[in-house]
């Protein structure tokens, strides 16, 4: 049985509203997003092809992969049509003091 744990990954003020940043946590490549002041986390690798999502374009709560133009809803990880056939994994996020924490297995 895997143990889930909260990892401190970035300072809260390091991620401005409308911005995203790549992080490494628990051996995973994760993308952090600040959407209207709320922090979200997903895998940072596109499920369609090996591309880093934080190299793409964030428009509101939708991230577009730079490689083939696939899009995902950041809040849920849902793939939004071709060429995406698999949703992104999302991670719970919390703010503790001035730090962003992500829960990983």
Mean pLDDT: 94
Helical residue percent band: under 10%
Task: Find the count of extended strands (DSSP E, 2+ residues).
Answer: 10
**SSE pattern:** EEEEEEEEEE
**Contiguous helical run count:** 0
User: Which blocks of ≥5 consecutive residues have pLDDT under 50?
Assistant: none
Overall structural class, as computed from helix and strand content, comes to mainly beta
Annotated CATH homologous superfamily: Rieske [2Fe-2S] iron-sulphur domain
Percentage of residues in strands: over 45%
Shape: globular
CATH class: Mainly Beta
Can you tell me the number of structural domains? Answer: 1
Structural topology:
Layout (H helix, E strand, L loop, with lengths): L4 E7 L8 E6 L2 E8 L2 E6 L13 E3 L2 E3 L6 E3 L16 E2 L1 E4 L2 E6 L1
Antiparallel strand pairs: 1-10, 2-3, 3-4, 4-8, 5-6, 6-7, 9-10
Task: Please provide a brief summary of the model.
The protein has strands at residues 5-11, 20-25, 28-35, 38-43, 57-59, 62-64, 71-73, 90-91, 93-96, 99-104.
Can you walk me through this structure?
There is one protein chain. With 105 residues, the protein is mostly beta strands. It has a single domain, classed as Rieske [2Fe-2S] iron-sulphur domain (Rieske Iron-sulfur Protein, 3-layer Sandwich), CATH 2.102.10.10. The protein is 0% helix and 46% strand.
């Amino acid at each position: 049985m895997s143990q889930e744990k909260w990892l401190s990954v970035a300072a809260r003020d390091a991620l401005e509203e409308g911005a995203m940043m790549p992080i490494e946590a628990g051996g995973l490549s994760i993308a952090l997003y600040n959407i209207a002041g709320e922090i979200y986390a997903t895998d940072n690798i596109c499920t369609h092809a090996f591309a880093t999502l934080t190299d793409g374009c964030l428009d509101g709560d939708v991230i577009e992969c730079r490689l083939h133009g696939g899009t995902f809803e950041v809040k849920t990880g849902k793939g939004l049509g071709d060429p995406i056939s698999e949703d992104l994994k999302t991670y719970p996020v919390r703010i503790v003091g001035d730090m962003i924490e992500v829960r990983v297995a």
